[in-house]
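Write out the 3D structure for:
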Amino acid sequence: QVHLVESGGGLVQAGGYLRLSCAASGSTFSRYNMGWFRQAPGKEREFVGAISWSGGYTDVAGSVKGRFTVSRDNAKNTVYLQMNSLKPEDTAVYYCAARPSGQPYYNDYDLRAYDYWGQGTQVTVSS
């Protein structure tokens, strides 16, 4: 079992930046691949980025490529989402999620691949 808690969300002007954190507890954090998703009101949850258990592989959605970066610090049981050049369309609740590193059925961008989810943190970008 993995318990995830996101933090770092808030209100920021367009063009600004935020770093979200996701703290894990309850299991061996380094054994899990991690993902970031976001969900705007009335819309489906969508993929933002992912990182392998070792940190050697990262992936981000095309809509945030060049602006967002995923990283992790296994010694601190924490994964990060660095969000730069924020746009109003980035406004959403952001969730982190954990999956076994050997999960064989779904791609990293598919939310069905993930077994554990945090409660989410609100990011609001004003224009």
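The chain has no helices and eleven strands.
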